[in-house]
Batch of 4 targets.
Target 1
Amino acid sequence: MGEPSNHSLKVSHQPRKVRSFVRRTGRLTRGQKQSLDYLFPKFGLAMDAPLPDNWQPGQVVVEIGFGMGDALHQLASAYPQFNFIGIDVHRPGIGHLLNRIESSGIKNLRLIEGDAMEWLNQTQWHQSLHAVLLWFPDPWPKKRHHKRRIVQTEFLQHLSEVLKPGGYWHFASDWIPYADAVKERIGRQHQLQLIPPEQIQTEVLRRPTTKFEQRGMALGHQITDLYCLKPTC
Ligand SMILES: C[S@@+](CC[C@H](N)C(=O)[O-])C[C@H]1O[C@@H](n2cnc3c(N)ncnc32)[C@H](O)[C@@H]1O
């Protein structure tokens, strides 16, 4: 028998990345596809983009995992004094939100397509964010999938880098075991501090009802909102 070819011997030693999402080849409507083609160049940002011109550091809010983005659009419309970035991997949602940005004419919302962990790993926007919002992230309820939850030690470390001193992270979930795990994790690190929202000195944005929140409530789930402050010293 001949030697096996080099090709068959090739083994990748790259550790497999555990991701917090599964890329679904969800159906894009024609409108969503057109928005991605024509509007992303207008309202999209690259992963490694600097803060857009005229955006004041400290007045920027990032939502990670906006889904279809209606809550984010509502928020950006309600708070014109802030600039907003939405990050998601879900192309139908990005297309949908691009459409809404164009038709409403709001000027303070831009989108990034991609894995928020990759963005957090490479962004230079340190100490620039007023708030980071993570509303109803995939709860990955099975124990063997807990490692897929986006809130891990590395995620919290990145948050403390990108938030301005006095800025905050808002986590919301309809899955109590996830909220409990987040509380425990926060308790084990010292960069962020779990705090009642009324004790945050800076402006706290009111969370609109989201699509996944409605879904959770329809199932009888209880909603938990957690606020974590990045201390000023
Ligand atoms: C359960 S949905 C919640 C959507 C929305 N926040 C809501 O409450 O209706 C979670 C969203 O997070 C996105 N997502 C999950 N992991 C992500 C990651 N690492 N980077 C960017 N988006 C992510 C998914 O694509 C999905 O749109």
Target 2
Amino acid sequence: MRIEGSVALVTGANRGIGLAFSRALLARGAAKVYAGVRRPEDFEEPGPEPLRLDVTDLEQVAAVARTASDASIVINNAGIQAGPGLLEEGSLDGARREMEVNYLGTWAVSRAFAPVLAAHGGGALVNMLSVASWRSTERFPSYAASKAAQWSLTNALRVALREQGTLVVGVHVGWVGTDLTVGIDEPKSDPAEVAAQTMDAIERDEPEVLVDDTSRRVRAALSGPLDLLYPSA
Ligand SMILES: NC(=O)c1ccc[n+]([C@@H]2O[C@H](COP(=O)([O-])OP(=O)(O)OC[C@H]3O[C@@H](n4cnc5c(N)ncnc54)[C@H](OP(=O)(O)O)[C@@H]3O)[C@@H](O)[C@H]2O)c1
């Protein structure tokens, strides 16, 4: 679909990959970008129109779907990493919050915007997934579980929204240089690169974005023996 002249909503648009999505949409000629943010009063980026949106708050989700009823592109980007390591003692609340935001938040926004997208000829729904949708780790097991759940949801949405003509795009990537990965000493993709490849996929009607070598390698390994993904298992 064409981005030029379109109206888009990006969740978690105040920083990181979400901010890069908003900038890329405007750079490709989007007529309007709604920035779904938890604190619109703190939003200083020129260009996007901020809307108060905590994706775990169903009333806010419904209100945003009413206000942004002219949107034909919705990007579910809001996400957190908050859970404990696999064998750590203590609370599992962080793991629950990850499910609330990454999985159920994406579900709530997608559900609310499905009729909005239908009213605009189908449009595009983009879910910001991860290489963690396909490969888990001892350090971030609950984050990976939430991204796997979000991937499963993305596949259900692909089927459910096909008839109304909605392009459902899943974006997979390894580490990206944002606040979420501060303290992780690994090579990282640039958020602008994630956004640029996602814009290309929307414009070419492609359902999956594999941003980096890690996501391409892990995607390919899914059909191979288990030790391709978990060599020490
Ligand atoms: N960075 C990576 O390596 C990487 C790799 C693969 C996938 N991803 C995914 O990419 C997405 C963006 O991550 P990022 O790296 O840009 O992280 P980030 O810099 O930490 O930004 C996260 C964004 O999500 C927002 N957010 C958190 N909880 C929210 C809620 N309940 N409702 C609405 N917005 C909420 C944050 O808003 P506040 O400012 O209000 O907290 C912020 O705008 C996430 O879905 C993440 O899982 C990231």
Target 3
Amino acid sequence: MRKLLDPRSILKLSYFYTTYQYLVGGIRARRLFIENDARINAGEKVLDIGCGPGDILRFLPEVNYTGCDINPKYIKTAREHYPQYDFHATSIEKFKLKDPQTFDVVITTGVIHHLNDNQVKTLFNLAKNALKPEGRLVTFDGCYIANQNPISKKFLDMDRGNFIRNEKEYVFLAKQYFSDVKTKIDETYFHIPYTSLIMECKNNS
Ligand SMILES: C[S@@+](CC[C@H](N)C(=O)[O-])C[C@H]1O[C@@H](n2cnc3c(N)ncnc32)[C@H](O)[C@@H]1O
């Protein structure tokens, strides 16, 4: 029998992805993530891993920005909207850093829960190599918690990402690359009930 097309695959198209994010509050969530958690200053050098169509850029100050994403359609949209920035249509596995240890901040929003453990390790390794010794990686992903609102859990279960983890599992992976991992659970950033984990990862020298 022919396999039915997953209706969520329409989100691989930039217009539908961004419209969906507006509806569920994902755009608001990214604004709050940038304001409260990533706290990026003008002039900083920023790497955005799995940048999608570049929706987060509307909330960043004037920065030296590089984005990469495996989906060429998202990168095409990002380049159209933000021709001044450096975008790479490539996977984290294939992305070659031209300028290691020069980035102030690496962000990755809504990406880790799409990746298996080996891919997450590749992402953390990439972030670690990109960052200056005092730099930081800030991540944002859906997260399972104890006694979760069942609607929040349902949204996580339905997510396109097949690797939604609990806090302990995310931190376990991050700690293999960063000595200092601070976490925050948020349940207010989206319009829908949705639980997110924010990690700020640094290396204490
Ligand atoms: C939920 S979207 C988040 C996009 C964007 N960061 C945002 O906040 O809107 C997850 C992104 O991860 C990207 N992605 C998934 N696997 C990847 C990989 N192996 N390498 C690079 N990007 C990947 C997808 O193409 C998608 O753009």
Target 4
Amino acid sequence: MFSITLESCEVKENTEAAMNLVEEINDLVGELGTGSYVSLDEAEQRILEGTHSIRRKLLEMSVNQEASGKEAEPVACPKCDTPSRRWRRRGRQITTRCGIIRVHRWVYCCALGHSHKPWDMRQRLKGKYTHRVAEAMCRLSAHLPFREAAEELSRQGIKVSHTTLHKKVREWSKDLKALAAVAPQTLEKNQRWYVSCDGCHTNSPEGWKETKVSCIYRDYPQLGPNSVASVRTESIRYTANRQDAQHCGKDLYALATNSGIYQEAIDTQEIVFIGDGAAWIWNLAAEYFPNAVEIVDYMHAKSHLYDVAKCAFGETETETIAAWIQEVAPILLDGNIPEVVARIRTLEPQNPEDRDTLEREARYFQKHAKRMRYKAFREKGYQIGSGVIESACHHVVGKRCKHASMRWTEPGLNAILEWRCLLKNKTWNRYWYPETKTA
Ligand SMILES: [Zn+2]
């Protein structure tokens, strides 16, 4: 086939490494080009393994050549700003995407004895990992359980134990401001903002705990033939963590304003807040989005009708329950809440003790009547379902964090959720590679 020879090598220290490299390439080429039969499978594997070692050596050579050079004088001490001088060369190991390399670079020292390593400071290293390795560690951990992520990394030639992965991903999440990474957007004509919250459960060493998920998105209402609007949802952004409602509110507000809400005059923006019946959600809506149109998710309201019917007729009376729902659900969808309440109050429960339950349900509808004007909402083209946030509970949190054996501590869970929101908000590259145009 062909062979490579070494003409010259300018850096003396690299000469030996370069000769090794040439030898290795020639060995690989020689081995594959002997004329004896090598299957595609074998050749593929041999080239992959062989070039991995070559890539590592090339990187090591190139980095050492750069690191052996002199810094532009004067080199100021980062601690006291006085001039520092080249002191000695020291080696360190770095885990790169080409494998583990050893780099010898200069240590500088000032008159006060502070030492520092200018080469290291230029490299965006995360501990002993390169920026790209750290990014891969975080990305895979955001998608996969730590053990699987560690296996996948190992296949890519990056050896990290799952416990290290867990520790590092959590440590690096502290620098991450996922909410600040979102790009602002402006509303186009006929667009409106939606804000929505919900809770879902994740397991902890002490049992199941609520994780709060919020999202904001935009839509274009499109009026259909029956003057009922269908909508196209777009640019959904998420925030999720296991924290109290107060933190959740602050995060949601930051996500909303970073995304563009309230960046123009308030009265030009239409905000729709959708939630279920939970009190914390409506407190949060009142505090942070006081001008929003509030809507109780229609399916959630309808599920209360089922509770009413079961209580009134008995759980086993499925036909009577279905008949009653068929009668009352259209009234609910019409937003005629006084009529819904009246219907509930005419019911006689099987069990006299259930009278309180029925009255509580009647009050639930009364309390949220303003948030259940479904006919008016539909005519305006508002979404009346919380499908977007419910699906977020599954694909932002559940898919990664609700496997059978998982028990999450609060910091561990919040770290992973932060990375996942960065992914889901399509801000991953913007955060990791802000210098690239596609970010
Ligand atoms: Zn100093």
